[in-house]
């Protein structure tokens, strides 16, 4: 591991909460696809399987920010454990109901409960922020976490699908639930690195979404999530049309690998100046990288195009986390990070749904227009909201260098 990453773990407790975060985040990439695999195997109803997966995503989009808001107020241990127990109970209900063929409404009710799962990635980033706030190490920490995210998305679906097809249908979601239980309870047992709570009565109420800058970031990432959701669905359909449906998981893993490599390299770099131009450049790069997908003719070319497209994902996500640091009051940091994840989840659900409709109507190659259009929307929102991103929350504004540059711009 390069020295900047090795230096991160000099802080006491950092190795422990990072390892717990890896386990706790695996369900993010395993549960949805695991439910699709399980239900399609048990019932043969792909429509039901997709609807249940979308229900989990949308429920998490609604519940996630509320759970994180409570975490900011009362602390990770007091909130994450009961929220996780609720999600685990709902997952158990889903597995039993699917196995014994209970009515569909029971399956949907269970999926709504699963949506109460906490955003473990936001919890880990909040711990890094508490350790390294205002230092260059925080950029490296966010880069490391983006790499961990991509590792989860490379291996999670492969593990979940593999277990459910080779062992028994419920195996993928069951292992995802086990990862969640171990990861969250291990994380919350580590009290020394837990960020201090910020009770509302001392720091004011209201949602973090009142921040104009956060509104821009979340709206942009709804469109960005639509890119991800559409690419996943269309790639599976394209591989199926090519007669190699099983290769879709490999091609999508290459997509995540591109982001993983870029995130690792990005973490070794240290930038001076404000992050807003880098963020907008990253959004533009994601949009432009969708254009070659419209020209794909075979799976090898698609894999290369998606690897290149993946190179812009992690750097943009890392810069986004830096901007959240500036635009959200410290007492609402976890909630702010979760709102971005919520925007992505909503976008994934929208993108996958629209892409599925276009695939049925015009085929997979034409459906690559969905992520291209989504990228254009993301760029438009980014440009329209750019001025809001130059106005950080009171008392915030990032590093010392960023403060100085902002003051110079204000004077000019």
UniProtKB/TrEMBL annotation:
It is a multi-pass membrane protein. Gene3D superfamilies: MFS general substrate transporter like domains (1.20.1250.20). The chain crosses the membrane at residues 20-40, 46-67, 79-100, 106-126, 147-168, 174-193, 214-238, 250-271, 278-295, 301-324, 336-359, 365-386. InterPro entries: MFS, MFS_dom, MFS_trans_sf. It holds the Pfam family MFS_1. Residues 402-412 have a biased composition (Basic and acidic residues). Keywords: Membrane, Transmembrane, Transmembrane helix. It comes from the Bacteria. GO terms for cellular component: plasma membrane. Its main location: membrane. One of its GO terms (molecular function) is transmembrane transporter activity. It is found in: Cell membrane. Residues 213-412 form the Major facilitator superfamily (MFS) profile domain. Residues 393-412 are annotated as: Disordered. PANTHER family: MAJOR FACILITATOR SUPERFAMILY (MFS) PROFILE DOMAIN-CONTAINING PROTEIN (PTHR23542:SF1), PTHR23542. This is MFS transporter.
